[in-house]
Every structure is written in C-alpha cells, then in structure tokens.
Write a structure and sequence with these properties.
- It is a single chain.
- The chain is mainly α.
- It has one domain: Methane Monooxygenase Hydroxylase, Chain G, domain 1 (Up-down Bundle).
- Helix content is 82%, strand content 0%.
- It is built from three helices and no strands.
- The protein is elongated and about 60 Å long.
- The N and C termini lie far apart (54 Å).
- 18% of the residues are buried.
- InterPro entries: Ribosomal_bS20, Ribosomal_bS20_sf.
Length: 85
C-alpha cells in the first residue's frame, strides 16, 4: 500500500476505472453473444440485435475499452455471420 497521498488516490482511481471498464466489457460481451444467438436461431429481431452489438462495440472504442482494429474485426465477424444466414 502506498504511503504518499497522491499514490493512494491513484490506487483508488485505478480501482474505480477497472470496475467501470469491466462493466462496459461485460455489457459488450453480452450484446455480442445475444447477436450471435439471434443470428444462429435466425430470429425476427436479428438485425436489431446485431445493430445494438455494433453500437456497443463502437461505444467501447470511444471509451478506450477496445482497440479500433479489434472493434473492426468483431464488427466484420458479426456482419459476415449475419449475411451468411
């Protein structure tokens, strides 16, 4: 545990940011899983769930959770899978 006041604050801030990033990442993974499931089942709301997953991916990039190339790869995979069905 740090002794310097500013270092203590950085530890607290890092913990808060880690939890926030974990929350965003969890929501992102859930959205992608729902989109993949909707594509697999050829559900009626397939396009809406894919659009929501792409939106979550873009938001993660804007917040610095994902790298832009990682996001592009995930969006491309969703689009390819959606078009194949």
């Amino acid at each position: 545990m740090p002794n310097i006041k500013s270092a203590k604050k950085r530890v607290k801030i890092a913990a808060v940011r880690t939890m926030r990033n974990k929350n965003y990442n969890s929501a992102l993974k859930t959205a992608v899983k729902k989109a993949n499931l909707a594509i697999d089942q050829n559900a009626d709301n397939k396009n809406d769930t894919v659009r929501l997953a792409v939106k979550k991916i873009d938001q993660a990039v804007a917040k610095g959770i994902l790298h832009k190339n990682t996001a592009a790869r995930k969006k491309s995979a969703l689009a390819r899978k959606s078009a194949a069905v």
